[in-house]
């Protein structure tokens, strides 16, 4: 492949869904910015600390679906008045995998209509 290196294994889809990051000391409520089969980015107003190699539990939920995920941080940056966190994620079990894929693929696509 020519050009720049592709870091993502799948396309990100813009989505605003509820997500809870289960940290060591407390849970953090946030909103997804975008999601894919293998990762998600979220936006939160107050930053929290996660070590580089630390695995965290995340729960993504919609009106119809709820998925439990395990993820590791890819990057963090300040974005406007809040913070954007990107995670590489994997579902915890088969049920969560099915639920998460429904969450991802039920989103409106970003292709031109």
Automatic annotation (TrEMBL):
Gene3D superfamilies: predicted glycosyltransferase like domains. It comes from the Bacteria. Residues 8-104 form the PilZ domain. One of its GO terms (molecular function) is cyclic-di-GMP binding. This is CAZy families GT2 protein.
């Amino acid at each position: 492949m020519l050009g720049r290196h592709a870091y993502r294994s799948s396309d990100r889809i813009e989505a605003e869904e509820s997500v809870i990051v289960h940290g060591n000391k407390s849970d953090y409520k946030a909103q997804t910015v975008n999601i894919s089969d293998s990762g998600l980015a979220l936006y939160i107003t107050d930053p929290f600390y996660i070590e580089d190699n630390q695995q965290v539990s995340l729960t993504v939920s919609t009106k119809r679906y709820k998925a439990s995920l395990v993820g590791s941080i890819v990057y963090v940056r300040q974005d406007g008045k809040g913070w954007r966190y990107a995670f590489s994620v994997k579902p915890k079990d088969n049920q969560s995998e099915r639920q998460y894929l429904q969450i991802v693929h039920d989103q409106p696509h970003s292709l031109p209509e």
